[in-house]
Automatic annotation (TrEMBL):
One of its GO terms (cellular component) is extracellular region. Keywords: Signal. It comes from the Bacteria. It is found in: Secreted. PANTHER family: POLY-BETA-1,6-N-ACETYL-D-GLUCOSAMINE N-DEACETYLASE (PTHR34216:SF3), PTHR34216. The keyword Signal applies. It comes from Fimbriimonas ginsengisoli Gsoil 348. This is Polysaccharide deacetylase. One of its GO terms (biological process) is carbohydrate metabolic process. Residues 60-184 form the NodB homology domain. One of its GO terms (molecular function) is hydrolase activity, acting on carbon-nitrogen (but not peptide) bonds.
């Protein structure tokens, strides 16, 4: 019944703000999580309580938002750029096979990491690694400012695009900026242009560990995440608390 760390990344590149994790910091996160006994899983594995962990391991649900180029880049020969998030993690997983690349990517269908000609290759790669895609709307709006109809359009069109790419539905949704629409009922599901759309779950931006998938208190339409940045309620701070025994995390039976 312990809590689950749902970790959230945006850019993996040089620079300093809460949306950026440098390659060095990302490597350090993987190393620290590994040493503390965390093992990676996707959002679906978490929601379905099929986290596929060795006994005693603690799940870390990895999420990457916005499909920024620095998350997944291929070189002209098709090889994964060793400096993008997936490349760095693959390198880490070679040394630590029990920490495989396993994450949920909340993508913007018009962005999808740039390199449009490489998209099919990237999707096949992610699938082969056991990663999955989730919905992050089409244009990343502040949903609270939109009419119900516009909210539906943002979620529905993104869902259709994912379905077209072969993603099994329903998918989960990460709210742009963590902001809910005025009409929160839309987060569960709605009808749009004669079709029914439902969300498997909805994720916020911050700022604490989530409930265990078996906990009746888990609100699937408001699941918190932990941002990977050096600041209040960021990943390093939560890992410090975990190390000091101040967070009771879920442990695989
Ligand atoms: Zn975003």
């Amino acid at each position: 019944m312990g809590s689950v760390f749902v970790v959230e990344y945006h850019h993996i590149r040089a620079g300093k703000n809460s949306m950026i994790r440098s390659p060095k910091e990302f490597r350090a996160d993987l190393e620290r999580l590994y040493k503390l006994g965390f093992r990676p899983c996707t959002v679906s594995q978490y929601l379905n309580n099929q986290m596929d962990m060795p006994p005693g391991a603690t799940p870390a649900v990895f999420t990457f938002d916005d499909s920024n180029p620095s998350q997944l880049q291929l070189r002209p020969d098709g090889a994964v750029d060793p400096n993008c998030a997936v490349g760095i993690w693959q390198e880490f997983a070679k040394l630590h096979p029990d920490f495989p690349v396993r994450a949920t990517f909340y993508v913007l269908p018009d962005v999808m990491w740039g390199q449009p000609k490489m998209l099919e290759k990237k999707l096949a790669l992610l699938k082969s690694l056991g990663c999955e895609l989730g919905n992050h709307t089409v244009t990343h709006p502040i949903l609270r400012k939109l009419s119900d109809d516009k909210v539906k359009e943002e979620i529905a069109v993104a869902t259709d695009r994912l379905e077209k790419l072969g993603v099994p539905l329903p998918v989960s949704l990460a709210l742009p900026f963590g902001v809910s629409p005025k009409n929160k009922q839309l987060l569960r599901g709605f009808d749009y242009k004669g079709k029914r759309y439902v969300q498997k779950a909805v994720f916020l931006v911050g700022a604490e560990p989530a409930c265990s998938p078996m906990d009746p208190k888990l609100d699937r339409y408001r699941i918190p995440r932990i941002q990977a940045y050096n600041g209040p309620m960021g990943l390093p701070e939560w890992l410090d608390k975990f190390e000091r025994g101040q967070v009771k995390a879920y442990v695989a039976p």
